[in-house]
Amino acid sequence: MKRILILLLLSSKVFAQEEAKDVIYKGFYNLSFLVKSPVGRFKDAISSDFSKLNSSGLSISYLTNPRIKVGELSTLLIGGEVGFVGNRQNKFFQPATSGDFFMNHRQAWANLRFRYLPNLAIKKVIPYLDGGLGPKFYFSRMMENVGEDEIYKVYGFTSTTLSYNLEAGASYKISGEKRPFSYLEFGLGYSQANSLKIIDRERVGFLSNFDVIDPKKSVRPQDFYLKIGITSYL
């Protein structure tokens, strides 16, 4: 009887070791390019003849298996993400009488992030569902280009709010027989944030003495975004 129990324990241990080779065990890290498009009232609020609606940028995330210390698998991975998107405004409602000015509108965030994987097996295609929650920062910076690669900030405005998002997508295996397994990832998501004040792109401009006219409006950001990136499952 003892021999049978020992054999069962050894078999279970070997099976667990073999299984770990073919499953997402530790977590993953990701680098992505994304494009955000405003929707709803937020789109109406930032629509302008002087500025583009869509913004693009990068995100970096790392998520880990919360059960790894006890040697167990988990379909829910937890970690964090940082990222930014932005666009540039070259024209203004009331332009400066001289000089070369432009305004950068950017968003940056640091989110607590989770990923749900319905199947942990290393396959050609891995579907996922992501979610996130955390602070988001909205920056508007008026810059002056004085030539010879010299650029100066002449005005800045920052506003902070709480944002949250949901994303669905799939990872497509591109290489790796051993860890880390490399995947090309495509995701489509929706993000929303609490109300805050931002620069009114339709009315921003200059006074005759080059002081910046900085009208602001209250908005509730809402975006759809497309994400393309490289994920390494560990």
Give a verbal description of the structure.
- With 234 residues, the protein is mainly β.
- Helix content is 12%, strand content 59%.
- It has two helices and twelve strands, in the order αβαβββββββββββ.
- Strands 1-2-3-4-5-6-7-12 form an eight-stranded antiparallel beta barrel.
- The chain is elongated, with a radius of gyration of 24 Å.
- The two termini are 39 Å apart.
- Residues 1-19 have low confidence and may be disordered.
- This is Outer membrane protein beta-barrel domain-containing protein.
- It comes from Lacihabitans soyangensis.
The N- to C-terminal Cα distance equals 39 Å
What quaternary form is this? Answer: single chain
Largest sheet: 8 strands, antiparallel, barrel
Q: Label the overall shape.
A: elongated
Helix content: 10-25%
- Helix tally equals 2
Mean pLDDT: 89
Number of strands: 12
Radius of gyration based on Cα positions: 24 Å
Low-pLDDT segments: 1-19
Strand content: over 45%
Q: Strand order of the main beta sheet, please?
A: 1-2-3-4-5-6-7-12
Following the backbone from N to C, one meets helices and strands in this order, namely HEHEEEEEEEEEEE
Structural class: mainly beta
Would you summarize the structure shown here?
The chain has about 230 residues and is mainly β. It has helices at about 1-20, 40-45; strands at about 25-40, 55-65, 75-90, 100-115, 125-145, 150-175, 180-195, 195-200, 205, 210-215, 215-220, 220-234.
